[in-house]
Amino acid sequence: MRYDLVVFDNDGVLVDSEPISNRLLAGYLTELGHPTSYEDSLRDYMGAAMHRVHDVIRERSGRGLPADFDDVFHGRVFAAFERELEPVPGVEEVLEKLTAEGVAYCVASSGSHQRIRVGHRKTGLDRWFDDGRIFSSEDVGRGKPAPDLFLHAAARMGVEPGRCVVVEDSPLGVRAAVAAGMDVLGFTAMTPAAKLAGAERLFADMRELPGLLAHR
Question: Which pairing describes strands 134-136 and 183-187: parallel, antiparallel, or unpaired?
Fold first, then answer.
């Protein structure tokens, strides 16, 4: 394969969590007096760390969210994960192929370490990702669209940014990867292709990924 490291986003790329979490986020913000539709949540927060939710709400309303907002939200999300979460179709075959070919891979997510691990345990992806392959926005000062998380992951994995490719499904993640000097493959299963225009290639079925990794 033409890359030394494949960096996966988590939500929407490894686990099919975006519909669940954005539905719950929209509902909770609306409860708190910040009317938000599911589509609004996807547009404004998909791929972002939690601090972006706080920043956007404060900027728009002049009011901060409750001190326990993150804890309450994550409690709702984790409970829904236990009921509903599934791996993205085809992703286990991709991980199996990368492992068989000796290609390094990791996950670099805006979500917390706890969120990543809860989702992986529920879907069975935990067997593919030990602690040394998991990187969270909690590990760096700034989340996506800043490049910090991707650069941190590459450094920890011992690979130069130019030898990395990022698999992303959010505009914020694509911007972060480009800023890090990495190639990006945009996964359009949930995201309109036009919103991932900065990606080198676009694909809608995870089973297409190995071919994209192998050929320019």
Answer: unpaired
